[in-house]
Amino acid sequence: MFCGGSVVEEFYRGFAQRARDLAEKADPFTRRRLLDLAKRYDAKSKPLGSARPSPLPRTSPPATYFARAGEV
C-alpha cells in the first residue's frame, strides 16, 4: 500500500546520502557540487509542510480603500 509521499521522501533521502558518500572520495570541485546536490535532495525529502513556510492568512483591506458610491 502506498503511504502518501513517504516512498518518494525515502528515495530522496537515500539519494542525498549516496551523493554525500561519493563526495567523500571526490576532488574539491566535484565534492562541492555533490554536497550541493545532496542539500537539494534533502530539501525534497521533507514533507511539503516543513519545506515551505505557510502562507500568511488573507485579510481584507481597510474600508478606507474602497470608494463610496459617486467617488472615483
Give the topology.
Elements: H1 6-24, H2 28-45, H3 48-51
First-to-last CA distance? 60 Å
**What structural class should be given to the helix and strand makeup?**
mainly alpha
| Helix-strand sequence | HHH
Low-confidence blocks of residues: none
Shape: elongated
Overview of this structure, please?
This protein has a domain of about 45 residues. Helices cover about 55% and strands about 0% of the residues. It has three helices and no strands. Helix 1 packs antiparallel against helix 2. It is elongated and about 75 Å long. It starts with 5 loop residues before the first helix and ends in a 21-residue tail after the last helix.
Defining key terms:
mainly alpha; 3 helices; 0% strand
Short description:
57% of the residues lie in helices and 0% in strands. It is built from three helices and no strands. The protein has helices at 6-24, 28-45, 48-51.
